[in-house]
TrEMBL record:
Active site: C73, H367, N388
Record-stated family: Belongs to the peptidase C1 family.
Originating species: Levilactobacillus acidifarinae DSM 19394 = JCM 15949
Name of this chain's protein: Aminopeptidase
Subcellular location: Cytoplasm
């Protein structure tokens, strides 16, 4: 094989320098970028005019929530879709479900899920890719729609008033570093037990002790979840209500009442290894052992958007996952591929296809939000209304505008009711055994 390794020569460097010297605009661009930064210099503020927050379909979903300094966007977004439904039924416009309650149980179940994966890979060296993957982040704040469904199906939900936020739920870095330290230490113990041929009873006893400690750690930092409570509130008409003796599961059944199996994950991943109109799951991705598994139906972008529009037209908001940091202006609340023009600024072609971005690590799902509107012109979407969970100081009182081109490029997942799927796609989603993807596949990214 020909040796392709070649050092940069002095002649090459000299030619690059001359090319820059000969460019009359080079110093102008250098001064602008070096003083203002890349994004400010590349910004095209005309994009803001195109992203005016006016939509032909616009759901009124009230005030936005605030996940603060935590990575619970997927959880906030999912609970927001349920809150929207509950608020309409019971006239509770300023109501929130407890994100801390589901957070507690997610952390607890993730610890057990981690232990099971440690035991399943205990015969592999710590240098194996799977073990290294597990130990890189034993657990984190992020998750996916199916994972929250697994928590709710097992533990239910409660109003935020019943289990409010704590310092650690709103600012989770200390909790995460402490819990991950413990989980890695526990992994050492479990792997050693397996290596020493310990009995199943001894391993189970060790794991039970670990889970007891995990529960205590979480109770001290997040508060202990309630098992029974009274729900007391005034509705938007100022009428007083009290509902006594509820459990988290009876509260969900009565006040949300969804059959969560009706809501399914639809993805758009146009990579060669994931043909459209097939289902996929990801190895070692989940939280509740024995609970609902992650399952994605991969479809074309046209089908992806059509399903979201159907649900919005029916008056239901849509959970979605995307790569929020790409071509996104946080303060203005604009997500638009035309907002930044780095290619013009540097005279470099930065364009990559969506599939290339996924395959080469340039993009993956990093954030979940809620679609609450869309602007249809001649039946085609031009921009989308997005409810974020970063508080009301960004965007338009916390709401963002997303161009349709941005959705094409950086949206990867929506959750829709199966009733909106065409018969052929519904049959595939319900009956096909999903292809198992590697743990590090980008479709396993946690929002």
């Amino acid at each position: 094989m020909t040796n392709l390794s070649k050092a940069i020569t002095a002649d090459q460097t000299a030619s690059y320098q001359k090319a820059l010297t000969d460019d009359p605009m080079a110093k102008v661009v250098e001064r602008a970028v070096s003083h203002q930064g890349i994004l400010a210099t590349a910004a095209d503020y005309a994009s803001a005019a195109d992203m005016t927050p006016v939509f032909s379909i616009d759901l009124d979903t009230g005030k936005v929530a605030n996940q603060k300094q935590s990575g619970r966007c997927w959880m906030f977004a999912a609970l927001n879709t349920m809150r929207h439904h509950l608020a309409d039924l019971f006239k509770l416009s300023d109501f929130e479900l407890s994100q801390n309650y589901t957070y507690f149980w997610d952390k607890f179940e993730k610890a057990n899920y981690f232990y099971e994966n440690v035991l399943a890979t205990a015969d592999q060296p710590t240098s194996s890719r799977k073990v290294a993957f597990l130990m890189t982040t034993p657990q984190q704040d992020g998750g996916q729609w199916d994972m929250l469904c697994a928590i709710i199906e097992k533990y239910g939900i409660v109003p935020k008033s019943v289990m409010p936020e704590t310092y650690n739920s709103s600012k989770s870095s200390e909790l995460n570093s402490t819990l991950n330290l413990k989980l890695r230490k526990d992994a050492v113990v479990l792997r050693k037990l397996v290596a020493d041929n310990a009995s199943e009873d001894d391993i189970a006893a060790a794991k039970d002790k670990m889970l007891k400690e995990d529960y205590r750690l979480l109770a001290y930092t997040l508060g202990e979840p309630v098992s029974e409570f009274d729900f007391e509130y005034r509705d938007d008409d100022k009428n007083y209500h009290i509902d006594k003796g509820l459990t988290p599961k009876t509260f969900f059944d009565k006040y949300v009442g969804w059959d969560l199996s009706d809501y399914v994950s639809i993805i758009n991943a146009p990579t060669a290894d994931k043909p459209y109109n097939h289902t996929y799951t990801i190895e070692m991705l989940g939280n509740v052992v024995g609970g609902r598994a992650v399952k994605h139906l991969n479809v074309s972008m046209d089908d992806f958007k059509a399903l979201a529009i159907k649900q919005l037209k029916a008056g239901q908001s849509v959970w979605f996952g995307c790569d929020v940091g790409q071509s996104s202006e946080r303060q203005k609340g604009i997500m638009d591929t035309n907002y930044y023009h780095k290619d013009d600024l540097f005279n470099i072609d930065f364009d990559m296809s969506k599939a290339e971005k996924l395959d080469y690590g340039e993009s993956l799902m990093t954030h979940a939000m809620v679609l609450t509107g869309v602007d249809l012109v001649d039946g085609k979407p031009t921009k989308w209304k997005v409810e974020n969970s970063w508080g009301d100081k960004v965007g338009t009182k916390g709401y963002f505008v997303m161009s349709d081109a941005w959705m094409d490029k950086y949206c990867y997942q929506v959750v829709v009711n199966k009733e909106f799927l065409p018969a052929d796609l519904r049959s595939i989603q319900e009956t096909e055994e999903p292809t198992v993807l590697a743990p590090w596949d980008p479709m396993g990214a946690l929002a």
